[in-house]
């Protein structure tokens, strides 16, 4: 039995929502994965009379495709879609059966209008919390357009294929056999990468806003809700709605919610904002702000948005190590998410750069997957004592403190790391297969230099009302000089900035 009783009980409820019959084509051999895949498919068929199974031969073995009767939808799973991909399996069954995907009609029309043949393959790991969004987006595209096919490939089940293609980060997507993208992408982002992007003309006739929010993370979403509830004209410009939390796995300190995951919280934030009359402009980045009669925000596509007040909530991003080899070997051994990419380094030697909580947590996670972890800290370990005790107890973790990284080495992929021992001033080199960079975050504020006042760390300086040095411009969240970078703090600061902006509107 592949599914435990609790999951089976939940799954049976979902399968009752199926509208029509689906046909599973199963391609298996005599290996362990094939046996488990056969057991899973048979369990699915036993739970619903609307699921029919037939053994056949597909491009990869083991794999199975999910189709309408008499019609190939192009949706294939090469590997067993459990773990984080279990939701992808459930949604594929429901959507192939006839239940409409929850996608805006505008996006549906864009997908249906795509011309040409597109064979997408997503290399994923079952522990990756970013992969399901990508898999589910391509599955929807396959379902809506007969010229598009999509296969999810579990890297652990197809190790030789993954290694032959030098895939060292997930999700990695190939299009017609060539590299297409790496990292989390929403359906909108995929379509934009295929050339379906709004140009400046779509923003030309927008009336000035009362409040324009730049950034769609927890701070921006909170600000949008608070502003919209005041009944004022509210807009939000987001590079990607959800921000950093889209790349966050477990969240256990969001008060009143014992446990959730970043993508789930991001979806809830967007759903909440859409309950109000907020003009959401997703996949747009700002490049300039200037105060005139209105405050003008110019986007990278050339459009200029006007507003009486602006709230900056652009968040932060992973800090790069900034050493030779890092840019060259990104996704070729350089990684930033131990949960996502760790399984690709099973049985290998990796290094983690960073002595704070993020670095130590990554080392602990990786120790259960890889052969050996070398943890390199710039000075001493700064992680919480409980984390330090845990990592020091692991037999396959070596801790090197006072290590200044000089270079990440390699040819076509990472093969080692060179560092300076700050105590002896000697240069040392470690041979390894991957490097995980975990050294904190940097504020997304470069585009504001010379306009909004920043501190030496590049953070926006704000007062108790979230106001910046420019009248009418407010800021909130991780891009500010607020000392604690936490989701709940960002949400609170977003509310403060929105209330501050509303008060400014009343007084001016």
Automatic annotation (TrEMBL):
FAD binds at residues 210-225, 468-478. Transmembrane segments: none annotated. It catalyses: a ubiquinone + NADH + 5 H(+)(in) = a ubiquinol + NAD(+) + 4 H(+)(out). GO terms for cellular component: cytosol; protein-containing complex. Binds 1 FAD per subunit. NCBIfam families: AhpF. This is NADH dehydrogenase. It comes from Schinkia azotoformans LMG 9581.
């Amino acid at each position: 039995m592949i599914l435990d009783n609790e999951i089976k009980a939940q799954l049976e409820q979902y399968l009752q929502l199926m509208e029509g019959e689906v046909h599973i084509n199963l391609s298996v051999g005599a290996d362990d994965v094939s046996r488990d895949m056969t057991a899973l498919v048979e369990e699915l068929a036993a739970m619903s009379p609307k699921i029919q199974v037939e053994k056949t031969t597909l491009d990869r073995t083991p794999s199975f495709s999910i189709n309408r009767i008499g019609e190939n939808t192009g949706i294939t799973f090469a590997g067993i879609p459990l773990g984080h991909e279990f939701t992808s399996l459930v949604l594929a069954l429901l959507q192939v059966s006839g239940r409409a995907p929850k996608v805006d009609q505008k996006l549906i029309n864009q997908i249906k209008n795509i011309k040409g043949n597109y064979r997408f393959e997503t290399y994923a790991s079952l522990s990756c919390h970013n992969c399901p969004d990508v898999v589910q987006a391509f599955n929807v595209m396959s379902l809506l357009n007969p010229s598009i096919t999509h296969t999810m490939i579990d890297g652990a089940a197809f190790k030789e294929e993954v290694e032959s293609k030098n895939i060292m980060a997930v999700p990695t997507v190939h299009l017609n056999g060539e590299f297409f993208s790496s990292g989390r992408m929403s359906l909108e982002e995929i379509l934009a990468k295929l050339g379906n992007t709004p140009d400046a003309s779509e923003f030309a006739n927008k009336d000035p806003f009362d409040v324009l929010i730049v950034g769609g993370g927890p701070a921006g979403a909170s600000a949008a809700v608070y502003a919209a509830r005041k009944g004022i004209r509210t807009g939000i410009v987001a590079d990607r709605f959800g921000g950093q939390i889209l790349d966050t796995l477990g969240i256990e300190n969001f008060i009143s919610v014992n446990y959730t995951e970043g993508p789930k919280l991001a979806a809830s934030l967007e759903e909440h904002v859409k309950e109000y009359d907020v003009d959401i402009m997703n996949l747009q980045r700002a490049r300039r702000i200037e105060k005139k009669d209105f405050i003008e925000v110019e986007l990278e596509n050339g459009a200029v948005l006007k507003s009486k007040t602006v709230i900056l909530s652009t968040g932060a991003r992973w800090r790069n190590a900034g050493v030779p080899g890092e840019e060259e070997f990104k996704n070729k051994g350089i990684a930033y998410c131990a949960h996502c990419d760790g399984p690709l380094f099973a049985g290998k030697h990796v290094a983690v750069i960073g002595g704070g909580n993020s670095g130590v947590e990554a080392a602990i996670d990786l120790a259960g997957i890889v052969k050996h972890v070398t943890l390199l800290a710039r000075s001493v370990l700064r992680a919480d004592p409980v984390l330090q005790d845990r990592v020091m107890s692991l037999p396959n973790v070596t801790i090197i403190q006072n290590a200044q990284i000089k270079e990440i080495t390699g040819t076509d992929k990472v093969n080692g790391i060179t560092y300076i021992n700050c105590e002896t001033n000697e240069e040392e080199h470690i041979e390894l297969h991957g490097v995980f960079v975990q050294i904190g975050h940097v504020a997304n504020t470069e585009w504001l230099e010379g306009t909004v006042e920043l501190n030496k760390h590049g953070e926006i300086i704000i007062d108790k009302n979230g106001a910046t040095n420019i009248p009418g411009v407010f800021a909130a969240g991780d891009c500010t000089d607020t000392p604690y970078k936490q989701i709940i703090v960002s949400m609170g600061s977003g509310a403060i900035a929105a209330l501050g902006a509303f008060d400014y509107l009343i007084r001016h």
